Amino acid sequence: MIRVGIIGLGTVGAGTYRILTQNHSLIRSRTGLNIKVEKIADIDTNKPKEMGLKEGVFTTDAYEIINDKKIDIVVELIGGTTTAYDLITESIKKKKGIITANKHLLALRGKEIFELARKSGSAIGFEASVCGGIPVIRAVREGLVANRITNIMGILNGTSNYIMTKMTEEGKPFSVALKDAQRLGFAEQDPTFDVEGIDAAHKLCILINLAFGCYININDISIKGITKIEPVDIELAREFGYKIKLLALARQDGNEIEARVEPAMIPITHPMSSVNDVFNAVYIVGDRVGPNMFYGRGAGSEPTGSAVVSDIVDIAQKIASKNTKANLSGLGFNNKIKIKDSDAACVPFYLRFTAQDRPGVLSKISGILARYMISISTVIQKGREENGYVPIVMLTHEAVEGDIKKAMEEIDRLPFIRGESIQIRIEEGLG
């Protein structure tokens, strides 16, 4: 019998417990393993009644689980970066199998945790830390192990994707779409991590570590959110044949990695453009297998609990076969790989200015762009607003991002420009 202790009985913890108990016979018939939830820890003393737990299973002290010699696997599902770190590292020291869904912690202190697990020999699973129920971690670590991965593109945050979907399909402004997401429980009252791209960046850190064997800090990632996207941008993107998505992107070029999370335009013909609502997707290009796309629900009690249980089964099989050595393949820290300066990237751009509708404005803007070697492919001027201002939209040929930023800063200082102009990358070379 393999005994499991669960720390945290929130959304994911409850889903994990339900799957392990309700699908116990199914799991046993498929794996031959008898997996028992020995103990559950949570600070909410109402949980035992809500979940129908048997007497003696529940505790408010997580260290009862860690110090229990009968428990083989510890599942950390409380989140955060302080207490969770202490619980995980203490469990590793006691050579227990460890499972976590804590992408924030792994992005921040994953290097320390993995190194400690490597020295201890503890197996560690974190499938649920990226894209909930989508088995992308296992796919990268095992299914694509023979491939040199060149590109990763992900829609990794369901909240922001839901908001962008509502803005695209119903023409809602960001503020209204956000309120809808909050009302339906898809967004927190403080949605900063989701809408500013921080949550997606945490997940991208983990994928980069796995795919490129390189530890990356979230501060190395260029991050922009979706708060400045307006319906006019979405409408014009459609006219040009694109959709706007909050994308997590990573590319390896020689010994450099480009890493960013930001709104980008992708062709409507690309399969990632059809990923809508709260769904997630990861598009990975390997040098031998070509492009692969993984799609599904990226959050929620049951999908994420399913991913946790898959890790429990994986580690339980190692314990049963007496091969408890940590499976940390792919979690290398290749110091030769460097993070590419985001300003050095060269791609086409969508630019939108709000300018006074008067002679000479367009030529002045074009002149500044020309001085920074930015070539324009298309110009559209929409209808005049009541106050005499008009949106001017340009698509550029490939341009260096640092030059785009400098040109935009100079243009925004012109007296006939109102507010901050918008720049959105156009992603064409997606594999």
For CATH, the homologous superfamily of the largest domain is named as Dihydrodipicolinate Reductase, domain 2
The profile of the biggest β sheet is: 11 strands, mixed
Low-pLDDT stretches: none
Count of DSSP-assigned helices: 15
- Text of the CATH class of the largest domain: Alpha Beta
| Arithmetic mean pLDDT | 93
Throw out a few tags for this protein.
single chain, 431 residues, alpha/beta, Rossmann fold, Dihydrodipicolinate Reductase, domain 2, Alpha-Beta Plaits, 3 domains, eleven-stranded mixed β-sheet, six-stranded parallel β-sheet
Mind explaining what this structure looks like?
Strands 7, 8, 9, 10, 11, 12, 13, 15, 16, 17 and 19 form an eleven-stranded mixed sheet that branches. The protein has a six-stranded parallel sheet with strand order 3-2-1-4-5-6, sandwiched between helices. By secondary structure, it is of the alpha/beta class. The protein is elongated and about 80 Å long. The two termini are 46 Å apart. Helix content is 38%, strand content 25%. The longest helix has 20 residues, at 301-320.
